[in-house]
Specification:
There is one protein chain. By secondary structure, the chain is of the alpha+beta class. It has 2 domains: about 120 residues, Gcn5-related N-acetyltransferase (GNAT) (Aminopeptidase, 3-Layer(aba) Sandwich), CATH 3.40.630.30; about 150 residues, Gcn5-related N-acetyltransferase (GNAT) (Aminopeptidase), CATH 3.40.630. The protein is built from 11 helices and 15 strands. The strands form 2 sheets. It has an 11-stranded mixed beta sheet, sandwiched between helices. Strands 1-3-4-7 form a 4-stranded antiparallel beta sheet, sandwiched between helices. The radius of gyration is 20 Å and the shape is globular. It starts with a strand and ends in a 5-residue tail after the last helix.
Length: about 350
């Protein structure tokens, strides 16, 4: 077996392997690499394991993040919930992880950030288990053959909330156009400011659209003449993931969020996808309960931050909350939207979640 760094010529073979691997996510696709490189100029470290016949038997995607005044890290992967190595067996998987850590050490990076999750079939009894207070999970919904079956399985309260949005005159537009990216960003950047969080650049989302092509979809909810809800879903194989969704708070009384998620669930189900990843949540919190009402089941996320050249690691490192962060978020919420759109991407490019 040989492990080497992937080149642009490997994109087709890489994606073929990822497309067929049962644990792969949309974030494993080569499109994520190109989007990160083009939008934020980070260097990639995408590793391929080949057998003697030069067939791919494993891959590990990673991105090097090196802030000017802070210790750098190799992340698998930034800006998403999980990635990690995919391989035909555990031996190859371990070899890829070791190779990534060695490469991080050779380039002077201090940390190796590695994010995976439990398997969905290992987490069937999650509702009966007690998890640490800061444990993050991804919420997975198995999809039926058609959206009519999915809708009929919802509780009456959920169906009425979807109908409420429609009765309020909200409309849905789904597609992949540049205009929809602009509409999405209008909603997303506003929501990020209100949350006190630096926003991604608009270029980031244009790069996602450019490279994911038919493996992404945008849904825009419109009301009172403007975009008030927006979401992006990425696809790989039979799996769909929603990394970004937002609404404008002053329109939440119209229930745009319910119609937004229903429009995307309806699309993914009727187009043959078998699982919908709602993204990360903390059990018991508001976003967890929101996703749970759709029928999504929790699957634990397994995050590690390894110190290169040491056995030390800090698990669940991204979950820590501090007074300083609360102060920064409070100040950020008070900034003019235009300022957060200008400053935000310069900060966001170094925040790996």
């Amino acid at each position: 077996m040989k492990i080497r760094v992937a080149t642009a010529n490997d994109e087709s073979m890489w994606d073929d392997f990822v497309q067929k691997h049962p644990q792969a996510t949309p974030y494993h696709r080569f499109a994520w690499k190109k989007s990160v490189e083009n939008a934020y100029r980070h260097k990639s470290c995408y590793l391929i394991a080949e057998n003697e016949s030069q067939h791919i038997v494993g891959v590990l995607p990673a991105i090097a993040m090196q802030p000017v005044f802070f210790s750098g890290k190799l992340s698998s992967l930034p800006f998403c919930d999980l990635a990690g190595a995919l391989a035909v067996d555990e031996t190859i998987q371990s070899a890829l992880i070791t190779a990534a850590q060695n490469m991080a050490a050779e380039t002077g990076l201090k940390y190796f950030e590695y994010r995976t999750s439990s398997l969905a079939d290992e987490s069937a009894d999650m509702n009966n288990r007690t998890l640490p207070a800061d444990q993050k999970v991804r919420m997975i919904l198995d999809l039926p053959e058609c959206s009519e079956t999915l809708l009929s399985g919802f509780k009456s309260k959920l169906r009425s909330q979807i109908k409420k949005a429609e009765k309020n005159g909200l409309t849905v537009e789904i597609g992949q156009t540049d205009q929809l990216i602009d509409d999405f960003y209008d909603v997303f950047s506003c929501n990020m400011r209100d949350l006190g969080s630096p926003t991604h650049s608009k270029q980031w989302f244009h790069e996602i659209k450019r490279h994911y092509k038919q493996n992404m979809i945008i849904s825009i909810i419109k009301g009172e003449g403007e975009a008030i809800g927006a979401g992006i879903v990425l696809f790989n194989g039979v799996n769909a993931s929603i990394p970004w969704a937002s609404t404008k708070r002053n329109f939440n009384h119209l229930s745009p969020n319910m119609l937004l998620y229903w429009s995307l669930l309806q699309y993914t189900t009727d187009n043959g996808y078998k699982a919908f990843d709602f993204g990360r949540s903390t059990p018991g919190e508001g976003t967890f309960k929101f996703k749970q009402q759709w029928g999504a089941k929790p699957v634990p996320l397994l995050w590690e931050n390894k110190v290169i050249g040491s056995n030390k690691q800090e698990e669940n490192f991204s979950h820590s909350q501090g007074r300083l962060r609360e102060i920064i978020e409070s100040v950020w919420r008070l900034l003019p939207l235009a300022m957060t759109i200008y400053i935000g991407p310069k900060v966001r490019k170094y925040i790996s979640l």
